[in-house]
Write a structure and sequence with these properties.
The structure is a single chain. The protein is an alpha/beta fold and 282 residues long. It has 2 domains: 137 residues, Leucine Dehydrogenase, chain A, domain 1 (Rossmann fold); 129 residues, NAD(P)-binding Rossmann-like Domain (Rossmann fold), CATH 3.40.50. Helix content is 41%, strand content 18%. It has 11 helices and 12 strands. It has a 6-stranded mixed sheet. The protein is globular and about 60 Å long. It starts with 9 loop residues before the first strand and ends with a helix.
Length: 282
Amino acid sequence: MKPPIGRDTQLCMSLSARPGNAGSLLHNRLYELLGLDYVYKSFSTADLPAAVGGIRALGIRGCAISMPFKEAVIPLIDALEPSASAIDSVNTIVNDGGRLTGYNTDFTAVRDLLLARAIDPATPFIVRGSGGMAKAVVAALRDCGFDTGVIVARNADAGQALAAQYGYTWAAQMPHAGAPLLVNVTPLGMAGPDADALSFEAAHIAACEVAFDVVAQPAATPFIRAARAAGKRTISGAEVIVLQAVEQFVLYTGIRPEPAMIRDAATLAHGAQVGELVASVS
């Protein structure tokens, strides 16, 4: 049984431009199932240095980092674990007695999903975006053996650097021919001002085999809905966010939940379909 919140309760949190409820639902449900004296709360901030200082000063055990803070947070913490230093992107901070270490569990989640879905690494891909999450996705693709891909990014410096780092091609505009694997790592389709935006054109979706969207809120983005309607295989951002959150949970607590617990918590946060999918991977 979970203890009541008191002075010894460990606080974990998230920082995002557009905070939602899913992370809080998932983490707090796992605390409940395991009887842990933890509580999780999502936040946004207009003052990242002050927020990170608060993590250190208040003894907050862990913090999930989402767009647009995954790169900006790096100079504010004390150390980077290899998963974060290799791609210069942090999505998790762990506080050990005031020392803040950055990790990247997005990489792990994307890699595990690519392997679990048995996508042939000979499949050519297009990744749209070049930010912190794009770095994790592209690193995971390379780690899984994908050798033919295009990074589409309007930011020429970031796009070219990311493509060159992993041996892929950069383009400022979407290639006319498309690719069998399409991956959206932009905010297009995310709840808010971009909610109705389609990250890939209908012709590209019609020509693809697998549609992968890292946007988690909503799980069924316009891109994912269009791909499902066209009979394509899909991987949703909700699956990514659950698997990476489980890795964060392990870092914060030292406990790995059983698959049935992960299914329960993911179903609460994202629905039964996502719960079943992630339990099969975890």
